[in-house]
């Protein structure tokens, strides 16, 4: 039904390449004191590392009911996987054990871990704890009471990819963790209200940044949202979590994107911690992220990554 209104679609998304670098934008004086500057090298390496490792980015546009159903199917699987993993969080377990719960669920549902499939990521899901913001490798790290944990689940089924993520805490919860999670969730909701066909892509970052700043938080600027659908990362490449007035791109009907605000208690950037994957801030700084995969329409986006 909905797909038919998307029917005339828009051929393939534009392939105009937009350089995602944020170099020069971050004013060091606004960085919280004690926040390590990752330096130009890290910044120009632009750790949407997953994107940096792809050579050609395609763009998915929903053209049929079949596409919509394919996306919905994998979207529901990743959403349920995330829900399951959140429900299993407890002190004393390792991130490897948590990842195996997610990995088993994906396999039982016929889905393949997208980062593993696409980038040979050493885990089924990305699990990032406390100062880690994204792409944490599941391993021997033991979860403790009071930890803030982000889980990012993306997977493929039948050639369709969906991507979701969310942060959660293990009681007793720190107030800062609860606050940052609430603001990150609201940032996602506000950004989704802006995401409609014909709107500028930079409205997404504007909404995220406004929500963060209104609550005294910062936005991680060197990781962002992205196109998804027929691959884990597609055009439109790097959708900033801040308002970038230079970004002239327009959202199109039928386009499939993620929105995933990274809200921080003080950092503006993440840096890679030396293991080749994990993106973190300095200890004592926390980041929360929530992510949905959605199809752009003339009205509200259609969220693909819902558990029910
Ligand atoms: Co994503």
In short:
With 308 residues, the protein is α+β, with helices and mostly antiparallel strands.
What attributes does this structure have?
single chain; 308 residues; alpha+beta; Creatine Amidinohydrolase; 4-stranded antiparallel β-sheet; 3-stranded antiparallel β-sheet; 15 strands; 19% strand; globular; disordered N terminus; binds cobalt (II) ion
Give an account of the 3D structure.
- By secondary structure, the chain is α+β, with helices and mostly antiparallel strands.
- 30% of the residues lie in helices and 19% in strands.
- It is built from 8 helices and 15 strands.
- Strands 1, 2, 4 and 5 form a 4-stranded antiparallel beta sheet that branches.
- α4 (65-87) runs antiparallel to α5 (95-108).
- The longest helix has 23 residues, at 65-87.
- Mean pLDDT is 85; it is low at 1-55.
- It binds cobalt (II) ion.
- Cobalt (II) ion is lined by residues 163, 226, 258, 260, 291.
């Amino acid at each position: 039904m909905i797909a038919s209104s998307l029917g005339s679609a828009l051929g393939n998304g534009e392939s105009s390449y937009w350089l995602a670098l944020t170099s020069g934008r971050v004013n060091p004086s606004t960085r919280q004191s004690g926040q390590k500057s990752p330096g130009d090298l890290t910044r120009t390496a632009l750790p949407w590392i997953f994107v940096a490792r792809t050579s050609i980015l395609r763009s998915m546009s929903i053209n049929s009911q079949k596409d919509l159903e394919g996306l919905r199917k994998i979207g529901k699987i990743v959403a349920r996987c995330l829900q399951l993993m959140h429900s299993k969080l407890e002190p004393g377990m390792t991130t490897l054990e948590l990842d195996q719960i997610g990995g088993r669920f994906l396999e039982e549902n016929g889905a393949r871990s997208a980062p593993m499939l696409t980038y040979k990521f050493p885990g089924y899901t990305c699990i990032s704890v406390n100062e880690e913001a994204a792409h944490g490798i599941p391993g021997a790290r033991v979860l403790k009471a009071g930890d803030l944990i982000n889980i990012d689940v993306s997977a493929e089924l039948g050639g369709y990819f969906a991507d979701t993520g969310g942060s959660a805490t293990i009681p007793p919860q720190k107030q800062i963790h609860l606050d940052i999670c609430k603001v990150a969730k609201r940032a996602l909701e506000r950004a989704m209200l802006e995401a409609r066909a014909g709107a500028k892509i930079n409205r997404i970052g504007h909404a995220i940044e406004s929500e963060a700043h209104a609550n005294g938080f910062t936005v991680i600027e060197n990781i962002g949202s992205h196109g998804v659908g027929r691959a884990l990362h597609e055009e439109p490449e790097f959708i900033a979590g801040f308002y970038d007035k230079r970004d002239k791109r327009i959202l199109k009907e039928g386009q499939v994107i993620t929105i995933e605000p990274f809200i921080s208690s003080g950092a503006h950037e993440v840096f890679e911690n030396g293991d080749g994957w994990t993106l973190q801030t300095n200890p004592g700084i926390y980041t929360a992220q929530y992510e949905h995969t959605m199809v752009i329409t003339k009205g509200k986006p259609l969220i693909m990554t819902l558990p029910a």
